[in-house]
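Local shape tokens

___
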Amino acid sequence: MTTQQLGMKHRIAAQTLIEKIVAEYEARPPRSRLARVFGVPPIPTDDWSWHIGALGERIVSSELDDLPDGWCRFHSIPIGDSDADIDHVIVGPPGIFVINTKHHAGKRIWVAGKTLMVEGRRERHISLSIAEAERLTKILQARLYGVPHAQGVIALVNPKRITIKEGPHGVVVVDARKLKSWLTKLPPAMDAGIVDRVASVLNDPATWRPTALVDVADLSARFDALMATLRRAQTVHALWILILGLAIFGACCEFFSHALQVG
């Protein structure tokens, strides 16, 4: 059954990105046998940011898998006329949350007011998150009376450290591993009836940009197979680097041993 028949709640995390990644991969000629032997990756390095982003959205989705009853979650919501989407929208008693996933594994994050820096590099995460929340708020308030403003949230995946000198206005920055705990500890702001009405509008495909019909189970399986191929290629590549390193080390040892004997 297709996503459009089931409603938007059946879209998988990172679906927009995964569709791009899989389409790009399947449109390219297969790797040669030599490329496979030497561990040449099936995905060009220019496209790695896509798959890193997709993996980050999947991690956040898994963190939200077991939200309590009364909560609804939506992923990869197509919005606007281009190929933009909202990573995750969560609706529950405390309100409506527009979650923007940022996969900065092992990186140091610094936040002060309107500024968010990753390893000293300024990023636009805060302004973009606020804009997404405002955009969703307008869509919902045009269809439902009395709906509260959506809250922008930046979920950071596996950061090394988050330093918040001054909390930004209009958006919350949180480690993805603490996201569910933070959400479920917030005080109630909407009754069950409003939650259901908001979820109904979010779930209606007519609310959003039309998208192609997709078998999400098949799409997910194709993406998983591609990621398995990528992991194998990375392992093979690492083994070749190890073999080369050992060969160079052995050659150096033999050279110095011969030099000492001659000397």
User: Anything to note?
Assistant: Residues 3-262 form one domain. The beta strands are 72-78, 85-92, 95-103, 108-112, 115-118, 121-123, 151-157, 161-166, 171-175. The chain has a mean pLDDT of 91.
